[in-house]
Amino acid sequence: MGQGLSCGTNHEQGLFRAVQLGEFETVEAVLEREPALLHHTTVYDRHSALHIAAANGQIKILSMLLDRSVRPDVLNRQKQTPLMLAAMHGKISCVKRLLEAGANILMFDSLHGRTCLHYAAYYGHDDCLEAILSAAQSSTVAASWGFVRFVNIRDGRGATPLHLAARQRRPECVHILLDKGALVCASTGGYGFPGSTPLHLAARGGSLDCIRELLAWGADRLQRDASGRIPYMVALKHKHGACAALLNPSSAEPLVWPSPLKFISELNQEAKALLEQALMEANKEREKNILKGTVYSLPSPSNSDVGLEDSISEVSDTELCCICFEQVCTIEVQDCGHQMCAQCTLALCCHNKPNPNTACLTPPVCPFCRSTIGRLAVAKMKNYDDTDHDIGDFSSSKLRKSRKSRNFSEGSSSFKGLSSAVGTFGKMGGRSSGRIAAENEWVDKT
């Protein structure tokens, strides 16, 4: 009997070693000889062959095991699934294959009470995070549990995936979660310091990029944790000077992405990316003013960067926005077809500070025809053969001149009304985008 046990153990260890090293033929031969080994686990951690394949990214072996009717949600000693381990180690191909096999994204482990979404956010694997969120949107989870509820799912200590991503300095994951509906001001239970928001945790971790993302999505700099501390005080305590400067309540308020507005959620990805880039650039100008003259001053653009910017402005000066007369028209208001630059669009849509009343904001109106802005898209232009081109194509000088004439004529009749509405709005542009916040205070008053 002892000899039989020894042989069985050797074969078992040989299987697990072969799975870890990706030796497909060896794994297949061992399982053909002893099919029962398919359901064996390691002695201490109770890892199955599927766990080992998922953690090591052995997609070919993982697919073979799933094809042999291995359950995708088999548990180890800590009740972790193969999907959790694949998300933890960033093995995106294994994550996708397990999701295709029907792996349950709502399972919690017994170690921290976390799901696969928590693991992807904590370890900063944004591709795995996207795959899991995509699966949640297209599965019964969205119908039964609710997609936004899943995005804000809490672990055993009351931390959402956004809390974990902010604490671990994962700005890409922070952005994805906020874009999918994560609550930017949610407080923790026992994770970190009780009552901490994602902004508190980002301040503790010292991540400027995470702080930028959170502030741009409306994080409240004055929200206090259970001990009465605001994020500014947390950053000071942990000696993150640059973070403290941005979080100082006396510093200028950042521009905030207008997520409560319905038409924002309907933006196509190209238009959204343009607006988000413009917003982040405007807030970086604000940061330069805040940090100017301190040891945390942001570096100035290199000479090559300045030259590139000048050349772009020179090339595109015939495609100017009819509001600021400085930037290229990159955004088009659908239905009416009027166009403007991303910076001017932001001035119509963004507000300067977190405001609980923003959930009731009405959509802004087009500054040219005063019709409600229902949808935005990337601006397109046509050549004489009626072929669509992106806004960056400036190959035809005749087309640029005709486009300029059309834009100026469209804007001339309504520009006076726009000027009276926004004051010194015409001075806003790429090189002066730091003034957007000051010139846009009228939005908060509406």
UniProtKB/TrEMBL annotation:
Residues covered by the RING-type domain: 321-370
Alphabetical list of SUPFAM superfamilies matching this protein: Ankyrin repeat, RING/U-box
Protein name: RING-type E3 ubiquitin transferase
The reaction(s) this protein catalyses: S-ubiquitinyl-[E2 ubiquitin-conjugating enzyme]-L-cysteine + [acceptor protein]-L-lysine = [E2 ubiquitin-conjugating enzyme]-L-cysteine + N(6)-ubiquitinyl-[acceptor protein]-L-lysine
Record's keyword terms, sorted: ANK repeat, Coiled coil, Metal-binding, Repeat, Transferase, Ubl conjugation pathway, Zinc, Zinc-finger
Top-level class of the enzyme under EC nomenclature: transferase
Organism classification: Eukaryota, Viridiplantae, Streptophyta, Embryophyta, Tracheophyta
Coiled-coil parts of chain: 261-288
